[in-house]
Predict the structure.
Amino acid sequence: MSLELEEISLQQKFEEAIASEDKLLIQDFLNHQNISDVADLIYTNEDFETQIISHLSIHRAVSVFKILESPTQKRIIKDLPAFKTAELLNELPPDDRTDFFSELPSSVVRELVKTLNPEERKVALSLLGYPENSVGRLMTPDYVYVYENDSVEDVFNTIRRVAKSSETVDVLYVLNDKGELLDDIRIKDFILASPDKKVSDLMDGRFISLHAEDDQEVASEVFKMNNRVALPVISKSNKLLGIVTIDDILWVAEEEYSEDMQKIGGTQALDEPYLEMPLFKLFRKRIGWLVVLFLGEMLTATAMGYFEGEIQKFVVLALFIPLIISSGGNTGSQASTLIIQAMAVGEITISNWWQVIRREIIQGLMLGCVLGIIGFIRVLIWAKIVPGVYGPHDVRVAFTVGFALLGVVLWGTLSGSMLPIVLKKCGADPAVSSAPFVATLVDVTGLVIYFSVAYLFLQGILL
């Protein structure tokens, strides 16, 4: 409740400041708010978003702009006066600016690049030259580097001179005269060392680096495994090109998570916010998988046509088709989602495929037994409540349903768990073995299993 009152109070103060039309009062009010609170004001007062950014000091405007959603950033840049746009883009950290440019049409980027000063323009074009979704697009050239022959006192002089424009000073990078990376050293080690000690005395030669052409997912995995706040980015010849910081990796992880969720839902990943995407483009993203899944479901009709004779002989078999295939589809989707999630966080790799199979066979048997028993009991109970509903062979029908459920559920767990691993092995994205895809596959094969079990139990009696 107190938080809501605080938000209302902030909004009221903002409205009072705007109503006063006193520029100095508005500037003073906005510059004394938390960055996140100013962002909330922008989201709440869309009509004033450009005005809010314009009244902030340039450094605070940059800090706010960095954390805004892409659609809001685009609107602000579009409506800002030209001189303010140039000022904002020149002050924006190179990695954040590159990320923003990546969301814009190339024609717009060309015009915005012209507003940058020569030095920033060179940096922007250099970063944009790296492949999309590569580490090069994430890195910033703003970092602190020292040389192996420097003393600790020299290092601190360097920090005082250049650290103000650096992204982080938690880690310093040691170079040789050729610009090659020799080591990275935490600032804590320099603080604890005596002033006359050499950088080379603190080096151990053990450093972790990224390559500019690496995929951003690779960088995310390296950060997670090594618990770092920043990592150096090097060229093939070991030249230090820049650094990637953890805040950029967190954005990457969020984007990758969103893409995976969209793929699991049976659609292509959206490269724009949902409300910003043109309807026809959204249609194209969705229709592809729907057609594939629809064609897959047509195989279900083909399978049912193959067993048409059996269905005509014993119509009651058709009553349980939705129950059988939905159980298999649900189990397969469940297994697929669990495996995709485990692979995404690094709990499972391709080499664990045999362990996964063994676990899922046991799981499939356990789950199938539970559902099979429930199905078996349900048929018998309903046959007692409504005598003759399943004919004179209700026990055999119950066994058919029970064992069919066991087989379909077992198959569902195996196919759902193995598909992501197989796709990963083939170099594809495991997320495309989405729940709808697995469900469609299990629907078709589930019918084959069901009627095969029915033939086994009812052969010579009804079939």
